[in-house]
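Please, structure for the following, as tokens.
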Amino acid sequence: MQRGDPRIARLMGIGLTRPKARIAGVDVAGRVEAVGADVHGLQRGDEVFGTCRGAFAEYATADAALVVPKPAGLSFEQAAALPMAAVTALHAIRDVGHVQPGQRVLVNGAGGGVGTFAVQIAVALGAEVTGVCSTRIAGIGSPAGRSSGWPSRGCC
């Protein structure tokens, strides 16, 4: 049996003996409190979301290139749930998978964070999507992007 030692991640900059970032989290949403002199397009009070290290803190420092304006219709909680999962799904479906209209796509883990976005993105690109998830998750409700032919149990 193997342990879950993230040795490769340690070498890639997370920290050799302990995490470099003392506060966890990468998905962030909030109001800009201050901007640096060379930052353009953001000002104090702007509502933004994106990624940064230490996002679970009350205050976090983010690179201006890694945040975007938060849509008015989203709460901060909703916006903070988007960045990592949504970008991962977008990259997988659009950039790596090159999904085209009419293609059939299987999303394994369709009830998870990345999977729910992958289903929606593939459907938006015109694919016929089949999602697989545990029966525990399948009973929660129908996923966004679900087509009319999907079963209601055992798959989502």
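Residues 41 and 64 are 9 Å apart (CA to CA). The chain has two domains: 7-80, 83-138.
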